[in-house]
């Protein structure tokens, strides 16, 4: 039977990486959209050559890897360039995710993506789990993790889908405002429930 796909998302600092790790520990096949986004621009992949041709050699590092900071500064200030890049990368990332999910041998597989809703990747899934936490807690966690400032975290929060938008798409919501042991037991509970589903629906 083909595994059904669970979309896992949550705002910055919600703890979706910890939740993802617990699913992996349960033996669930998991693909990370952020990793897929890195794979498609590795040296030797066609996307990297197209990016270098379009933006010029300054978006490459000396070793031929993508210079993310240089590329970011080019597309953040220019909406047309950002759209060009997204039009190139989104279908490739989607293909990478689809290929990887197709290799799943667990009864269901997980697609982790911070931009699951915004990128349209939720269309690849049959069910959506949103990891949520109070905003203040998310800000504190992110500042601790990334050694960043509250202002920078607020800017990222604004760029991501609003919490309401995410929750509106959610089939399941995991409020991560306690400790890791509790979180692990919640993932185990969800995992047991998910194993009982056919095609992601009760």
UniProtKB/TrEMBL annotation:
Classification via Pfam families: CoaE (PF01121)
GO MF terms, alphabetically ordered: dephospho-CoA kinase activity
Subcellular location field: Cytoplasm
Major localisation: cytoplasm
Residue ranges of the TM segments: none
Keyword Signal listed: no
Catalytic reactions of this protein: 3'-dephospho-CoA + ATP = ADP + CoA + H(+)
Pathway(s) the chain acts in: Cofactor biosynthesis; coenzyme A biosynthesis; CoA from (R)-pantothenate: step 5/5
The protein's name: Dephospho-CoA kinase
Annotated source species: Pseudomonas benzenivorans
């Amino acid at each position: 039977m083909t595994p059904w796909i669970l979309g896992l998302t949550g705002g910055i600092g919600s703890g979706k990486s910890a939740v993802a790790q617990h699913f992996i520990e349960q033996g669930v096949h998991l693909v990370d959209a952020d990793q897929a986004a890195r794979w498609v621009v590795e040296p030797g992949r066609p996307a990297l050559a197209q990016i270098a041709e379009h933006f010029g050699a300054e978006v490459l590092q000396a070793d031929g890897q993508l210079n993310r900071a240089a590329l970011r500064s080019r597309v953040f200030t220019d909406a047309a360039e950002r759209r060009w890049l997204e039009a190139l990368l989104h279908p490739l990332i989607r293909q990478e995710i689809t290929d990887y999910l197709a290799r799943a041998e667990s009864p269901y597989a997980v697609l982790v993506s911070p931009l699951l809703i915004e990128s349209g990747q939720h269309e690849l899934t049959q069910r959506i789990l949103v990891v949520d936490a109070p905003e203040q807690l998310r800000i504190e966690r992110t500042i601790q993790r990334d050694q960043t400032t509250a202002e920078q975290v607020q800017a990222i929060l604004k760029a991501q889908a609003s919490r309401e938008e995410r929750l509106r798409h959610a089939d399941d919501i995991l409020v991560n405002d306690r400790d890791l042991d509790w979180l692990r037991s919640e993932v185990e509970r969800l995992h047991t429930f998910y194993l009982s589903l056919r095609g992601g629906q009760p």
